[in-house]
Queue: 3 jobs
Job 1
Amino acid sequence: MPSALPDGEPVPDDGSLPASALTGSADRPLGFYLHVPYCATRCGYCDFNTYTATELRGTGGVLASRDNYAETLIDEIRLARKVLGDDPRPVRTVFVGGGTPTLLAAGDLVRMLAAIRDEFGLAEDAEVTTEANPESVDPAYLSALREGGFNRVSFGMQSARQHVLKVLDRTHTPGRPEACVAEARAAGFDHVNLDLIYGTPGESDDDWRASLEAALGAGPDHVSAYALIVEEGTQLARRIRRGEVPMTDDDVHADRYLIADSVMAEAGFDWYEVSNWATSEAARCLHNELYWRGADWWGAGPGAHSHVGGVRWWNVKHPGAYAAALAAGKSPGAGRELLSDEDRRVERILLELRLREGVPLALLREEGLAASRRALGEGLLEARPYEEGRAVLTLRGRLLADAVVRDLVD
């Protein structure tokens, strides 16, 4: 089941923000994340805030229905307009995620985007992305999205091997994600991403190479590759605990990452974030860069998180409770926190170190600077950027990114 929300102070019923949250907002881009919490089935590794029809039955009634979800989410977009007041910023990025957003009708996703356009306006070069399950779209669906203003699509591929997909409880057939890329290109999408997962129990190096080759051969301009994390409470965690499938160790994850980086580089893909590769700067996911650079975004939908000017908040998780709050004219926010200057400094280091451009050494304190010098000596940071005042991970440093960043935030 989905993981728990953090603690925090109450969100005002009207969702209002402290005046300080919009100070200097003109210098920060604004994005929207739209969460669609529905899935046809629950994958064994998933602990996202998603629900199948069976899980929702009897717990939310009509309020939790997919049929009227778009209108409910549009209510929150309108609430965002009220909360942000006369903020003049057009929206720079929109990302529809889930769950499986493409379980909704294409017209629903287009109407959600239109609401953002109507309430805020879209930047001339706005990036508009939706995630998609390969089995939930066809050429007509993709064409409708493109005509409705979407210009980027991200398909969940995970693996090209059937036995790996089976362990993950993925329902699409090998080859379908690659076909989706061709269909998206034919519909007019310039930017297409494929998501991969490595380190699944039972996956071999050859399996992983085959997945990379299949993904790259399909012709996307962006690939994300994530190490499988086995979350407590998931079906996969229970299977591992019962000894039905083996746990993949960290050394295997490291080997798979090295394979990925090598194969991607040979295919003309450059890393720009530890788990993300693109063929050009234009192919990067600008929405994710908003997160990594601490910009402003409004997360609409059950369990969605938002951040504006150092205020972070999160919505109630259940679709029924979410819809009920909005129907009552109230914010669906479950809690929030006001980030201190120190919180924001630490988060900048945590997130920006993962980027190709790295993090300014000026953000580090004395102990963090000492740790950075050790990391440089150990080959974890690149020498030339360091001389220019930035901490940038080497390939070896990317393998140990979590450990490096823990030292630098001291």
Job 2
Amino acid sequence: MTYSYFCPCPRGLEAALAEEITEIGQGSSTLKVHNQVPGGVHCSGSLSDSYRLNLHSRIASRVLLRMGQRGYTNENDIYDLTLEQPWEEWFGLGHTIRVDLTAIKSPLKSLEFTTLKIKDAVCDRFRDLYQERPSVNTRTPDMRIVGFLDAHNYTIYLDTSGEALFKRGWRQETGDAPLRENLAAGLLRVSGWTPGTILFDPMCGSGTILVEAAQILAGIPPGANRVFGFEKFLGFKAAEWQAIKAEVKPNALPRTPTLFGSDISGDMIVMTRNNLRNAGIQFDVPLKQIEAQEIKPPSGIPGIMLTNPPYGERIGVRGDSSQPADELTTSFYHAFSTTLKQRFPGWKVFLFTADLSVPKLLRLKEARKTPFFNGALECRLFRFDMVAGFNRRPEATPKSS
């Protein structure tokens, strides 16, 4: 049987996710990519394809199984469509449930009331059949039911993932506002990094970018060490799940390092080492405690620098706390820019940031800027192609007298 799926992802990564699903589909004759929409990708396949997607997708936030879709005018229409779905074929009275609802341009006045109507419909379906209803557990539910409303249509999904897919299971510690794992994986893909290419994160924080790259290099699927919602489905096919996991073949470990990281904070370096170990990485990822302005290329071969620069207090961890934050940031970027221009010719430098003035602060002209959203926060991935000599923005180039 063929099912319809929707895989949400961080906004800006839809094309990268579609490309990734196509690659995952090479191991399946039934998984097909359909259309991209803001915030995700529609695809279809067998039930075991949802197992495959959950195990292998680094970019998707979840894998949602579509139960039904219809136009609506009021909350009763939403209740009716939800009540029609054969929930009892997927889970039983002993399973706990949670309902989440998102909406874009919906005319309905109260999403809270509509969420309650969806929950009532699911429970009423069971009450009509068995004179009992499943319990609600908003913290650790067995089953997550997800509704989506646009201006005209209502779609109801059953979540096959359980916990969000960016929760890989390896992260024991985080720094301030860590980059989500699926966003880091998407940035790696968009940057064009591939295993074997030199990768350097000079402001690695808790190491999210490095851990994602290291798992890709090692051939460790992102879902290798976690459990999923589909494992509690009544129709769960344990043998098929074991067969899909058995298809995974680890890559040969690299003999010489190609991944490198550094950070101003020694605590962050320790955190990164711990996260790499928890993620099953058994090869050397050299890490160094150093200010980003002082870095040197970790390899004689130019590569890709990909980093999520901190701002404010993190930049000034060992700086002069008496300076205003904006002055500190300006002086940091000026010094970092000099380092890039003088020491990193031939490198492609990618900075992911919510500060859209970074190119101006660096006094560099970006080769490309790609818009993303980190949650609701608008960000950019700026690419700078470092060449020998000046790479300045035109207005920053000294004028001849």
Job 3
Amino acid sequence: MIALSLAEIAEVVGGQTHDIPDPSVQVTGSVVRDSREVEPGSLFVAFVGERVDGHDFAEAVVAAGAVAVLGSRPMGVPAIVVPDVQKALGALARHVVQRLGATLVALTGSAGKTSTKDLIAQVLQSKAPTVFTPGSLNNEIGLPLTALSATDETKFLVLEMGARGIGHIRYLADLTPPRIGLVLNVGTAHIGEFGGREQIAQAKGELVESLPEDGAAILNADDPLVRAMASRTKAKVLLFGESGEADVRAENVRLTDSGQPSFMLHTPSGCSDVTMRLYGEHHVSNALAAAAVAHELGMSVAEIATALSEAGSLSRWRMEVTERPDGVTIVNDAYNANPESMRAALRALAAMGGASRAKGGRTWAVLGKMAELGDEALAEHDAVGRLAVRLNVSKLVAVGGREASWLQLGAYNEGSWGEESVHVSDAQAAVDLLRSELRPGDVVLVKASRSVGLESIAEALLAGGAQGEVDAR
């Protein structure tokens, strides 16, 4: 964080200082909520959670070097006490962002946010110092913590914004007002909470409404609900996508034998070839979104294409591709799942399977529940199971309870798969089955919503051998 004294911070957040001998002492380190991340000069933010009360760590974090604790009660150590810790954290982030000379880029969407954010960050890092959301910490706590990690040297601040209801993105954009706002898509993720795609579009569009007149809205030309958001902003609009009307688009898209996308990138300043290190055709749209942001910030098409071709995956369990010594390839995409991302992952698996089939290998889709789909859950799980058949995936292993049974039934009804689709009760059963049947050349995709924890299957398979158990949830 930029250096601020405890007295300045207390004034910004409307807090009272307690047990602080010298209010002029500055916070020069990071602002953290995890006591394990404290370093000399840190400010520790004490939240009260369901299982852990951050105030209980006050003495330990000060002993570890924290300058003070931001909390809701005195703790006998240097502290700034406020009525609402979350609001105080947001106020501090807003103050710091206003002091920065950085350009703020915010993005949202139903699918692909984190992968696109990682691409944008890597492209912009090739130009100037960039701070970006780690993983998918995109809520009212993670976003201000990310903003507070920026320093005086930061030129670009890239922030992922998530929403579970109307008003959430408006709140986040008020904390960290962006100059560039990117909306990727409007899908069915969290549709059970929102009530419909129109409501999701209303929520996501709050981002473009927050933009200043001299800002830029980067919108997906191929998604009608996103494209329509152009009417909700006074900022400049830049379109990306496959549409011929898109300002930033891709031509001659193809997948390499290993499933990595290659295409000709077109921008208003010219065109250049891109071959990505990431897996799956869905990353083309993500790359175009990143390219549009970079173009708006003055990068040349050659610089953008080079950075996109060199970019890798920065966040765990998102299309992590690992080949075992015995020739079996594990694709760990188990961080989260919704219908759009599930379909994209299956298409990537099918593309990767082309090379494996030539070697006698097979493709395995190990899938679990997609959460928060409400009344659409049965239809969406059934549709994913059917898509696996249409894509000629060799084997479907549906893991879990009711939703998994819908996946398996959809596959069975689509192609009378019989032994090609199976429903197992839990992760351990899936691992036992896979260990007994995998052979060199096979490609295994593992994917489900975060709450299911199917990454344990991928980790168990990568651990090798036929022994050991998964870390069951």
